[in-house]
Amino acid sequence: MNETTTEDKLKQKRNMLYYNQLILNERRAKSFYGRKTKTAKKRTSFGSQKVDFKDYLFIPEQWEFVAYILYFVGIPYTVGALFLFLFIANANWESFQLLNLNAFPVVWLIGYEIVSVCLLIWIMILYLTYESEEGY
């Protein structure tokens, strides 16, 4: 008789563990599916972050407007000229001098496309790493 009571006690403990696990899973499911709990934090989206270009570019105080214009014009033109030198002229200075670099809009547009693709790839990488940091 003593054996059956020990066996009954073991069954009761197993049942309680199972019941507690069910309750715990139900609570997790409620908090996961959007029912707010007291400890749930409001999750901010990637698009709602504040972006400050001063974190990424050197911009002197009171010269922001001039610096932004120089970056907007200078970086794409330089990248476009570098692309023409490396890929069109095959890094040959004589061939590069034969190109018409006075066509500013064409060189700028080539560089602008290259810079914009690089920035979009960088933003996508930032987005993917942001999502993995959140844990969802």
Draw up the topology in text:
Elements: H1 2-32, H2 64-88, H3 93-98, H4 104-134
Helix pairs in contact: 2-4
Number of strands: 0
Low-pLDDT parts are none
- Which percent range describes the beta-strand content? under 5%
Question: In this structure, how is the largest beta sheet organized?
Answer: none
Shape from CA axes? elongated
Helix content: 55-70%
Give an account of the 3D structure.
Helices cover 68% and strands 0% of the residues. It contains four helices and no strands. By secondary structure, the chain is mainly α. It has helices at 2-32, 64-88, 93-98, 104-134. Helix 2 (64-88) packs across helix 4. The model has no long low-confidence stretch (mean pLDDT 82).
Task: Briefly say what this structure is.
With 136 residues, the chain is an all-alpha fold.
Features:
single chain, 136 residues, 68% helix
